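step: validate -> pass
step: tokenize input -> pass
step: predict -> running
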Amino acid sequence: MNRESSPALCVLTPDPLLTVEIEGDRAGGAPEIHVHPGGQGLWVAKMAESLGARVVVCGPFGGETGELTAHLARTDNLELRPTAHGGGAVVVQDRRSGEAEEIAVMPPEPLDRHALDDLYSMALVTALDADVCVLTGTQFDLGVPADLFGRLARDLAASGRAVVADLSGDAARAVAQEAATVLKISHEELVEGGFAKDDSVGALRAAATEMIDGGPGAVVVSRADEPTLLVTADATWTVTTPPVTTVDHRGAGDSMTAGIAVGVGRGLELPDAVSLGAAAGALNVARHGLGTGRRDQIESFARRVTVETLD
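step: predict -> pass
step: emit ->
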């Protein structure tokens, strides 16, 4: 594993959000309030930065809450390419019971045609200067068409840029028709999106193989506590991590995506890149804080990941 490489990543982040969490850890019973930048794209970006990548985030950071999210993201050593409009989502969670209870959600400002054009061109130009572009989806209904992800994957692949996409539904279907380097998707999303008839290994493998026939070089299927599947045109592997007790299951998939993208950016073989991603995801669930981890621990843990060819 090439530990010294510091690849440049561009992360498309259509809906960054501000997360406000109320905890009950403070002595005397008073609540603790934590404020973090969040959303799929920022969680991917944070983990990639922890693994030594130089990360540029493209996304809307409008309004006062968007500006605060941007400030916090920059304190996490992320470089931003903000668009002029949209963004500003906030999620407030009460975690004092041990579970995350959402008590207030402010959706982001929807993206109009001009904002979408700005987001696309910003991501395209930025990604052309990167080793890998990571495409992440949306939690909120922003009016982002699936075609935006497909066009970006197509244009970047045409310029020889690696694309790692973590998408579901119509967005995944659009990218599955293009020459992306890796499409990562969960077993649940494959079934719910109509790609696979059920969540058996055979059905998931068949769905991934059909996707590859459309363009992607590889499909990675995360399967919660079960071994991850890595499917290419030539082979299928299972990727298994040592068992880890879960503290917080959120963010495991985003950390896996970050690890895969960093591995691809380092020039690792796909099984090694997915092993790095699996290690990042597994260790993320063993700690509090989404998209967090230490590079030395993740790379050490990755050496204990088992990769086996599936007949």
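step: describe -> The chain has ten helices and 14 strands.
step: cleanup -> pass
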